[in-house]
Design goal:
By secondary structure, the protein is α/β, with parallel strands linked by helices. About 7% of the residues have low confidence. The protein is 34% helix and 20% strand. It contains 10 helices and 11 strands. It has 2 domains: 243 residues, Rossmann fold (3-Layer(aba) Sandwich); 39 residues, no CATH class. This is DUF58 domain-containing protein.
Length: 310
């Protein structure tokens, strides 16, 4: 049974994730000529052919397309030379989606776990429509599900079903045995060299090992981090008493308390510095996405023309 509209901000069901295929289509705006996205890049292979990315110029060989002859180089070197291009090819897209306990939260928009599931769903639909293989690793603190990349709609639907069923409805007895590091370690085993990988999380659970795990993954793959954040995590209100849900029950705080405000800003600043250093050391591109933003709108700013995800 799918989640009702009244629950959509705290949990998103399978049918709603399926409907996000329309958002993915809307992102695929018409483009006269594909261009190389600065962050994500395009798929490449070692093969040479008539692709979009220029590779090199070499001496003309029998069988080369005469339309690829570089006439300027030919005239300068007094021998026919041919332009070669890197051929764009499909490659696996792997989505690591964090639905852990810290993502059962939002002060505006939708819960972070909902935004993570929505982002993963849209990226899955985009990858499938581009003819790429799609797979995922979904984890929520107590469960980790691995789906190897495949180029079938049935595989995407199975991934969406996992996203729908593994969202947390309660923090009661929440387990955190399976962490982001666990998922990154599993990703190294699952990902084929040259994969396009998105890590979708709030990254509140990073450890001293996260940078090395991300770096090892990024050494043979193209990795991007989509960090889902809530405005309240970055800046507290100036006054008022608020309750935040936790494993032991609601925790109350007084936003007008100056000492509390200072301690909060210090904690946020220290974590942001750790995370920035983590991404720097691992060489991973990172983008912040707010719970108040729609997933499609957030992705539109970071994807290439025509919704290209690499």
């Amino acid at each position: 049974m799918d989640v009702t509209a009244s629950d959509a901000k705290t949990r998103i069901g399978l049918q709603a994730l399926i409907r996000l295929q329309a958002d993915a289509r809307a992102l695929k705006l018409p483009s006269a000529r594909p261009v190389r996205a600065r962050q994500a890049g395009l798929q490449q292979s070692a093969q040479r052919g008539r692709g979009m990315a220029f590779a090199e110029v070499r001496l003309y060989q029998p069988g080369d397309d005469i339309r690829s002859i570089d006439w300027r180089v030919t005239a300068r070197r007094q021998a026919p030379h041919t332009k070669l291009y890197e051929e764009e090819r499909e490659r696996p897209v792997l989505l690591l989606c964090d639905l852990g306990p810290t993502l059962f939260f939002a002060s505006t928009g939708a819960f972070k776990q909902v935004r993570c599931a929505q982002l993963a769903a849209i990226l899955a639909w985009l990858a499938l429509s581009a003819g790429d293989q799609v797979g995922g690793i979904v984890f929520n603190g107590s469960t980790l599900t691995v789906q190897r990349p495949a180029r079938r709609k049935k595989s995407v639907l199975r991934l969406l079903d996992t996203l729908a069923t593994q969202q947390r409805l309660s923090l009661d007895n929440a387990s955190s045995e399976i962490t982001l590091d666990t998922a990154l370690t599993e990703a190294r085993r699952v990902a084929h060299t040259g994969s396009r990988i998105f890590v979708i999380s709030d990254f509140l659970g990073i450890s001293e090992n996260t940078a090395s795990l991300l770096g090892a993954l990024a050494s043979h793959n193209s990795v991007s981090a989509l960090r889902v954040v809530d405005p309240l995590e970055q800046s507290l209100p100036q006054s008022g008493r608020f309750a935040v849900a936790g494993p032991e029950g609601p925790v109350w705080f007084d936003a007008s308390n100056r000492n509390f405000q200072q301690a909060w800003r210090k904690k946020v600043s220290e974590h942001d510095a750790r995370l920035k250093n983590c991404f720097r050391l691992s060489g991973v591109n990172a983008v912040d996405i707010s719970t108040r933003e729609t997933p499609a709108g957030s992705l539109q700013a970071i994807l290439g023309p025509g919704g290209r995800i690499g």
